[in-house]
Design a protein that fits this description.
The complex is a heterodimer of chains A (255) and B (98). With 255 residues, chain A is mostly helical. Helices cover 66% and strands 0% of the residues of chain A. Chain A has 12 helices and no strands. Chain B is an all-alpha fold and 98 residues long. Chain B is elongated, with a radius of gyration of 19 Å. The chains are: A mainly alpha (255), B mainly alpha (98).
Chain lengths: 255, 98
Amino acid sequence: MSNSRGDFLLALRDGVPLGVSVFSFGLVYGVMALQAGLSLTEGAVMSLLVFAGASQFIAVGMIGAGATASAIIITTLLVNMRHLLLGASLGQYLRNEKSTKLAVLAHFLTDESYALSILRFQQRPATAAYYLGAGLTIYVTWLMGSLLGMAMGATITNVERYGLDFVFLATFIGMVIPQIKSKNLLVVCLVAAVTSVVTALLIPGNWYIIIAALLAAAVGVVGEKNDTRNISDSAGHGHCDLSNQSTLDGAGGKG
Amino acid sequence: MAIVTYLTRAPLMVLVGKVKLPRQLENYLKYMPVAILTALVAPGLVVKDDQQLNLTWNNPYLPAAFVAGLLAWRTKNVFWAMVSGVGTVIVLRALMGQ
């Protein structure tokens, strides 16, 4: 019989390094949320309920730019789509748990908690306790970072002097670059970059994000097919491998 | 937003084992993060608010993006990429007297 409590504590310990990155990431989010005009409550609630770093960053950026609610929701959906994969992948290990319990646990699914859990589950018996420990560690550090960031953000008035208008972009560059692990992914990135810029110049609003993303991802799939000699094995997962890296959104891809 | 995000988390985690995403869909979603994040960043670097291109030397974002990218590539750490990028912007702006 697996030791639930032991696993839970083990996850807390394993989760510390990632937790630290997530915390600093949360700080950035907090400051940005404030800059975008969110109140302390709004920003905190978003971290509490959404708990998906990349999408929260994106949403906050879009709110600041005055995007429509539907555009934000669609973009959130697209960015967090990978949770479907993370959930499916992890769900196979936790299939013996009750559905209601899984439904609650699902809220803590992020790239980080996924990475922590999947690595462990591949070597030891999977327990919901471990996953919960991992998820909570990330959740708490994320919340703490967000709140502190929002509190600090209020004291920063001259945004540009501190280069804070660039925080969002710099963070995302930091998240994307390590993800480019193959020539195909590089192509996807370039296509997305060019398409988004061209679309942004031609079509007003934030549709360039969705259009460029849908197109670039499609290019990725085509590119993969063209590498006929390619790996058919690592398919299946398609999750962002963040076990060695600092955080990608709260949800990987995080988000 | 929370609802939508939760909907990406819960359903499959609970249902999986019964439902398997079509392989093509899985492959497609695999590229989504890189695609979306890039689509987010690129225009932010070179497109000004009035939908004009800004590739002039006055744009501190370009060199800063290069620095951030370099740090990201080397350290694979979001934090350092962020700090170096922002730092570059601060320095450039100070130098340009903005």
